Amino acid sequence: MAMDLDDLVFHPWSVQGPRTVPTFVGGSGSYLTDATGRRFLDFSSQLVFANLGHQHPRIVSAIKEQADRLCTLAPGYASDIRGEAARLIVEVAPEGLGHVLFTTGGTEAIEHAVRMARLHNGRPKVLAAYRSYHGSTTTSIHLTGDPRRWASDTGAAGVVHFFGPFLYRSAFGASTPEEECERALAHLEQVILLEGPSTISALVLEPVTGSSGVIVPPAGYLRGVRDVCSRHGIVFIADEVLVGFGRTGEWFGVDHDGVAPDLLVFAKGVNSGYVPLGGVLVGDSIYETFTNRPYPAGMTYSGHPLACAAAVGAIGAMNDEGIVASAARLGNVIIGPGLTKLAENHPCIGDVRGVGGLWTLELVRDRQTKEPLVPVGATGAANAPMAAFAKACLGRGLLPLVLGNRIHVAPPLNVTDSDAATGLAILDEALAEADAFLA
Ligand code: PLP
């Protein structure tokens, strides 16, 4: 199993030291292969980025062709492949987002979006939701509204958090999606008025919350946020790093409500993560700000030609293979009904929620009280039920994504029906391990 070479790697988000884990050496479609030749079903598309699975031939050949022509080029130079990637991205983006700033990932793109907003309207504060993740550098981790922020929180200048809609654990005591939507928007308006609208530069929001809970807002919420931002001159930044490029069964999360943000941040699905790429789609009025003065930021590898080539291959494949429609079907026909059925068999499942190819099972001790099966931030013995579940999955050849008391289910959007059924059957068996911890 473990190769000693793995001990030389300092692993992000992890306790360091020797580990017993498979060493991956290959992949194909929804499967990864380890050094012993064993195959594992990737039921979370890694960190929800390998939307077209592994070794998609169209992306691989786009990268190879670009590598043969020109491996690298600095950001300021005009590049055919960068232009083509921008064209394809703008083509599928919401109206009015006509230019692309490329980055090497999502965190960096969030940093740029916030900087652009502040330079655009000269205001200091930024609003972000509790239960959110926006990245792990200083600004982006402070915007983040979940326990990952706590370890590095030194008090963020200018960041104000608010509650978004989340019916399962409503902060507003609502009992219907309509009530939750109305109350969440009224709360947001209050926060803005009490903070002082003219002091707020931007509002950053995941249109569907990803790793902090897979929370799908009620219909009309995103439209309400758009309206409130427009009324107060606040830049609406949609963080589509995890949900953009088809994950929720629309090209972008904001498409569910038919609204366009002022800035749209993307990464992951733009090229299935084959070469690091992210970016900011820039709305016309913000673009105008930087036509008379320089935009003062950028990185050496922004818009790397190999990453842009991977995006051209990936978006081409998504268009030709109807991946966005496949994602919607995956949710409506396979994963949604499959997980709902699991909830009938497993008392530890408190809530099943999601959309398209992004779902979660929230595990609880008690369905009435909704007490989480493991406490927030649990490690060691306190996390035993989730660890037992994860071990059971791995033993059966499935790679799960377990975050806190939740099991996130997000297979490649082109997963076959039979592979999806295999994954659901393994979850069914492994969930028995978590049930066993109920008193
Ligand atoms: N924003 C969201 C919604 C994310 O899910 C992530 C990563 O998971 C990020 C930002 C940060 O992106 P990256 O890890 O590419 O820096």
Domain tally: 2
Rg for CA atoms: 21 Å
**What topology, given as strand order, has the largest sheet?**
4-10-9-8-7-5-6
Helix and strand run: EEEHHHEHEHEHEHEEEHHHEEHEEEH
Summing up helix and strand content along with how strands pair, one would put the structural category as: alpha/beta
For the termini, the CA-CA separation is 35 Å
Net shape: globular
Number of strands: 15
Number of DSSP helices? 12
InterPro entries: Aminotrans_3, Aminotrans_3_PPA_site, PyrdxlP-dep_Trfase, PyrdxlP-dep_Trfase_major, PyrdxlP-dep_Trfase_small
Protein name: Aspartate aminotransferase family protein
Organism: Promicromonospora soli
Pfam families: Aminotran_3
Question: Would you write up a description of this structure?
Answer:
This protein is α/β, with parallel strands linked by helices. The chain has two domains: 4-55 and 322-435, Aspartate Aminotransferase, domain 1; 57-321, 3-Layer(aba) Sandwich (Aspartate Aminotransferase, domain 2). It contains twelve helices and 15 strands. It has helices spanning 45-48, 57-69, 80-92, 106-121, 138-143, 177-195, 221-232, 284-289, 305-321, 323-345, 384-395, 417-435, and strands at 24-28, 31-34, 39-42, 97-103, 125-129, 159-162, 200-205, 235-239, 263-266, 278-283, 349-355, 358-363, 398-399, 401-403, 406-409. The strands form three sheets. A seven-stranded mixed sheet has the order 4-10-9-8-7-5-6, with helices on both faces. It has a four-stranded mixed sheet with strand order 1-2-3-13. Strand 1 (24-28) and strand 2 (31-34) form a beta hairpin. Helix 3 (80-92) runs parallel beside helix 9 (305-321). The chain is globular and about 65 Å long. The mean pLDDT is 96. The structure holds pyridoxal-5'-phosphate (PLP). Residues 47, 105-107, 110, 133-135, 206, 210-211, 239, 241-242, 267, 278 line the site of pyridoxal-5'-phosphate.
